[in-house]
């Protein structure tokens, strides 16, 4: 290697003010506790066209400088003096910042090599080495690190896309509530937890009355808005931890934590509908029929069976109700 450069070229904190500042140059942190070797290495790195971000003489200092300077590569002597050696320092740096490391060592023993390899370095040079070996090690390390970053980014993008597809497959496009599949997947798990921990649950089956008349007289776009308004009323009624879904058509379902009965949430839903109906600008009046059933923690009823019980209860309410529901300038009976 070349003659060592003057120690005056390195500031007391390890920074090198004479290093090229080109944003294209790879920035390298040197960690070497032998001053002459560090100076010689610094001069070689600069001559090869890289930028020296700083020089550290011990492991703890290297960890702090890597955090502060965020170099693109660390060239680390394995046998550092101090509280931690180079292998330990490299492991801490990679855990904190995923900065690639090239090890330098005068040791050739297998135990040291084995410890070093377990930290996942991207290069390993045994002193003394030639300048061309250093350049090759740096270029290979940078290339491999960039390839690893690109791979992680692709994998993360694929994971996000997969999560999005799963989410879309579980969400009703019109109302943004869970769809039938999404409800069953979550409800099955909630039911298992409730039975194991003896939590009380209530299942609510909600039918939007008069949707056909809204579609026939006002159009399907207005009917879609009526469904979205019903979904908004349900969101305002139930907690985020409850599972609310549109099963399809004019049918909605919710699985909610309750105290002793379902009457409180039933009345709260009625109140939310009243608030929506009091607002101006709607050519229809929202009205629903509600059926409920309590989940018996000691029973083995399936979600399908619980929905059937709540559905039957809803039809009892629908048959028992009377009067006329107004939708714009037309009427519909409660049974429609």
Automatic annotation (TrEMBL):
EC number: 2.7.7.65
UniProt domain Response regulatory: residue ranges: 27-142
Any one GO CC term of the record: plasma membrane
PROSITE patterns documented for this protein: GGDEF, RESPONSE_REGULATORY
Keywords: Phosphoprotein
Record-annotated GGDEF domain positions: 199-332
Segments for region (Disordered): 1-22
Any Pfam family: Response_reg
Compositional bias segments (type: Polar residues): 1-10
SMART domains in alphabetical order: GGDEF, REC
4-aspartylphosphate modifications at: 77
GO biological processes: cell adhesion involved in single-species biofilm formation; negative regulation of bacterial-type flagellum-dependent cell motility; phosphorelay signal transduction system
A molecular function GO annotation: diguanylate cyclase activity
Domain of life (superkingdom): Bacteria
Catalysed reactions, semicolon-separated: 2 GTP = 3',3'-c-di-GMP + 2 diphosphate
SUPFAM superfamilies named among the record's database cross-references: CheY-like (SSF52172), Nucleotide cyclase (SSF55073)
Protein name: diguanylate cyclase
Organism: Povalibacter uvarum
């Amino acid at each position: 290697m070349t003659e060592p450069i003057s120690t005056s070229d390195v500031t007391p904190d390890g920074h090198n003010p004479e290093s090229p500042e080109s944003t294209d140059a790879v920035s390298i942190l040197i960690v070497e506790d032998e001053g002459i070797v560090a100076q010689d290495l610094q001069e070689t790195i600069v001559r090869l066209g890289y930028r020296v971000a700083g020089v550290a003489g011990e492991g703890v200092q290297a960890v702090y400088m890597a955090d502060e300077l965020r170099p693109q590569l660390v060239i680390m002597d394995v046998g550092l003096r101090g509280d931690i050696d180079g292998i330990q320092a490299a492991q801490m740096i990679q855990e904190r910042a995923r900065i690639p490391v090239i090890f330098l060592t005068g040791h050739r023993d297998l135990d040291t090599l084995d410890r070093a390899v377990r930290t996942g370095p991207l290069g390993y040079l045994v002193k003394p080495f030639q300048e061309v070996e250093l350049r090759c090690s740096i270029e290979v390390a940078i290339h491999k690190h960039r390839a690893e970053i690109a791979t992680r980014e692709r994998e993360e993008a694929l994971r996000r896309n997969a999560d999005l597809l799963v989410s879309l497959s579980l969400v009703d496009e019109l109302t943004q509530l869970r769809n039938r599949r999404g409800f069953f997947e979550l409800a099955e798990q909630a039911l298992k937890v409730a039975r194991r921990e003896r939590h009380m649950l209530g299942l609510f089956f909600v039918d939007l009355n008069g949707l056909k008349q809204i579609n026939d007289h006002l159009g399907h776009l207005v009917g879609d808005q009526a469904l979205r308004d019903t979904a908004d009323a349900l969101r305002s009624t139930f907690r985020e931890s409850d599972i609310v879904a549109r099963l399809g058509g004019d049918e909605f379902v919710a699985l909610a934590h309750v105290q002793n009965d379902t009457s409180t949430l039933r009345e709260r839903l009625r109140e939310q509908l009243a608030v929506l109906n009091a607002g101006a600008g709607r050519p229809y009046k929202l009205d629903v029929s509600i059926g409920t059933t309590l989940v018996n923690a000691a029973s083995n009823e399936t979600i399908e069976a619980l929905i059937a019980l709540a559905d039957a209860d809803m039809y009892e309410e629908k048959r028992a109700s009377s009067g006329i529901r107004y939708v714009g300038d037309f009427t519909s009976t409660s049974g429609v």
